[in-house]
Design a protein that fits this description.
Layout: H1 2-39, H2 46-50, H3 57-75, H4 81-91, H5 96-121, H6 132-136, H7 139-162, H8 165-196, H9 201-204, H10 227-247, H11 263-270, H12 272-298, H13 315-330, H14 335-345, H15 349-373, H16 379-407, H17 411-442
Helix pairs in contact: 1-17, 3-4, 3-5, 3-16, 4-5, 5-15, 5-16, 7-10, 7-12, 7-13, 7-15, 8-14, 8-17, 10-12, 10-15, 14-15, 14-17
Length: about 450
C-alpha cells in the first residue's frame, strides 16, 4: 500500500513544485517588463517631463514617497539611499543610473538639513554655553572615521566593478540581515535598561545628552563650536575630492585627461592610502596630545572625556574602513551601515544618529559634486528632490525629538533604524534578485570581472 502511495506523493509534489516554479518564472518575467515600460517615455514620469509632457501623477507620488522616506531616514540618522532608489526607479520612472545620481542630491539635502537642525535648533541659543548639538555630534569619532571611511568607499567601488551582481546581492542581504538582528538586540537591551531604572540612565549610561554635556563632543572643553575639527574634516574632504576629480570615471572622463587604468590612474588611486593614513595618524596624535594637556590641567585622568578613552583608538579607523568598503561595494550611502556600527561600538543612540548624519553629509556631498562635474543631466529636477528631502528631514527630526522627550526613551531611534534596515533588506534583495534573473535569462556573463 505504501509503495503505491509513493508515486502519488511524488506526482503531487512534482505538480506543486512545477506550478510554483512556473508562477515564479512568470513573476520574474512580468516584473522586469513592467520596470522597462516605466523607463520608456511616459507623460507621468520624469523622463516624459523632460520631453515636454509636464508634471504627472508619478512625479507627485514620487515626491510624496520621497518626503516620507526622508523624514523617517533623517529621524534615524540614516541617509535613506536604499529607500530613494526604488522610489525613483519604480515610481518616477528613472533609470537606475539616473536614480543613483538623484539619490546623491537627496541624501545630501537630508543630511545637510539634519546637521543644521542639530547645530542651530538643538543649541540653547547664542551665548548659552556649549550647544547641545556639540554634545550630540561626536567630532572625535567623525575625525577618526572620515579618512578611512572615504578610503574604504574607493576600495569598495573597485570591488563593485569586479564582483558579479549575484554575489553583491547575496552579500548585501546577508550582511544587512545580520546588522538588523544585532541592532534590534541592542535596542532591546537599551529598552530594558530604560525600563529598569529611568532615573539612573543619565548618570550611568546617558542616552539623552542634555545641553552642556562634554561626554561625546569633539571639543571636550567649553571652547564652543569645534571649528578646528570641522576644518580638518573639510580638508580631508577636499583632498579626496581633488583625487577623485583627477581620476574621473572608468571612461577617463575627468577634469584632466588620464588613461583609464593606466599608470597615472592607479598612482592617483593608490595615493589615497597614504593620505588616509597620514590624516588618521595626525588626528590620533592631536587628540592624544590634547587629552594629556587636559589631564595635566585637571591633575587626574578623566575617563569620561572622550570615547577614545574607553575603546582602542584603532577600532574606529578599522571600523570606518570596513564600513566604507561595504558601502562602496553595495552601492549605497554610508548611513545605513554607519549607524549600526556606532551602536555596536557603544555610542548612545542620539549621538550615533547625529554623528552618522554628520559623516553622511561629507560622503554624499562628494558624490553629488562628482556627478555635477561629470556632466549629470537633470540637475534642476534633482535639486527639487533635494529640497523636498531637506524639509522632510526637519520634520522627521522634530517628530523623533518630541517622541523621545515625551517617552524618555532614546531606544526609539534604535528601533527606527532597525525598521529601515529590515525594509531595505527586503527591497534591495527582491529587486536585486530580479536583476540577477534578468541577467541569467539573457545569458549574460555572471562571473568576476577585471577592474578595467
Amino acid at each position: 500500500m505504501t509503495t503505491k502511495l509513493f508515486p502519488l506523493v511524488a506526482t503531487i509534489t512534482n505538480s506543486t513544485s512545477s506550478s510554483h516554479s512556473s508562477y515564479l518564472q512568470n513573476l520574474f518575467t512580468k516584473l522586469p517588463q513592467w520596470r522597462e515600460r516605466l523607463l520608456l517615455v511616459d507623460p507621468s514620469s520624469h523622463v516624459g517631463a523632460a520631453y515636454g509632457h509636464g508634471l504627472g501623477l508619478n512625479t507627485v507620488l514620487a515626491w510624496l514617497l520621497s518626503f516620507l522616506a526622508a523624514s523617517v531616514s533623517s529621524a534615524g540618522g540614516v541617509g535613506g539611499g536604499s529607500l530613494f532608489l526604488p522610489i525613483l526607479n519604480l515610481v518616477a520612472g528613472l533609470s537606475l543610473k539616473g536614480a543613483t545620481a538623484y539619490s546623491s542630491f537627496m541624501v545630501t539635502g537630508g543630511a545637510a538639513s539634519n546637521v543644521l537642525y542639530n547645530l542651530l535648533c538643538m543649541g540653547g541659543g547664542v551665548g548659552g554655553g556649549r550647544p547641545a548639538a556639540a554634545a550630540l555630534i561626536d567630532y572625535d569619532i567623525a575625525l577618526l572615521f572620515q579618512p578611512c571611511l572615504l578610503l574604504g568607499v574607493s576600495i569598495g567601488v573597485v570591488c563593485n566593478v569586479m564582483f558579479p551582481e549575484w554575489l553583491i546581492t547575496a552579500l548585501f542581504a546577508l550582511f544587512l540581515a545580520f546588522c538588523t538582528a544585532k541592532t534590534c538586540r541592542a535596542g532591546l537591551k537599551i529598552w530594558s535598561s530604560e525600563s529598569r531604572d529611568a532615573t539612573a540612565r543619565d548618570s550611568k549610561e546617558p542616552l539623552m545628552l542634555p545641553p552642556g554635556t562634554d561626554g561625546n563632543g569633539g571639543a571636550g572643553d567649553d571652547a564652543g563650536f569645534p571649528w578646528k575639527d570641522v576644518a580638518v574634516l573639510v580638508m580631508v574632504w577636499l583632498c579626496f575630492f581633488v583625487l577623485h576629480v583627477f581620476i574621473g570615471d572608468k571612461h577617463g572622463k575627468g577634469m584632466i585627461r588620464i588613461k583609464p587604468c593606466g599608470v597615472a590612474y592607479w598612482s592617483i588611486t593608490l595615493s589615497q592610502v597614504p593620505f588616509a593614513g597620514a590624516f588618521t595618524a595626525y588626528i590620533i596624535y592631536a587628540k592624544r596630545k590634547k587629552q594629556v594637556v587636559h589631564n595635566q590641567e585637571d591633575g587626574k585622568a578623566n575617563p569620561d572625556n572622550t570615547k577614545m578613552d574607553t575603546l582602542p583608538t584603532l577600532v574606529f579607523p578599522l571600523a570606518a574602513f570596513v564600513t566604507g568598503a561595504l558601502s562602496g561595494l553595495f552601492g549605497i550611502g554610508g548611513g545605513l551601515l554607519l549607524n549600526p556600527v556606532l551602536l555596536q561600538i557603544g555610542i548612545p543612540p542620539q549621538t550615533a544618529a547625529a554623528t552618522s548624519s554628520f559623516m553622511v553629509l561629507f560622503c554624499a556631498s562628494m558624490s553629488m559634486v562628482q556627478f555635477i562635474l561629470l556632466g549629470m543631466k537633470g540637475i534642476g529636477e534633482a535639486s527639487v528632490y533635494a529640497g523636498i528631502c531637506f524639509v522632510a528631514s526637519v520634520v522627521g527630526a522634530v517628530v523623533i525629538e518630541r517622541a523621545i522627550r515625551k517617552s524618555g526613551r532614546a531606544s526609539l531611534i534604535v528601533f527606527l533604524v532597525t525598521g529601515i534596515m529590515a525594509l531595505s533588506t527586503v527591497i534591495v534583495t527582491f529587486f536585486g534578485a530580479l536583476d540577477v534573473w534578468a541577467q541569467y535569462t539573457r545569458g549574460a556573463y555572471m562571473g568576476f570581472k577585471l577592474p578595467c
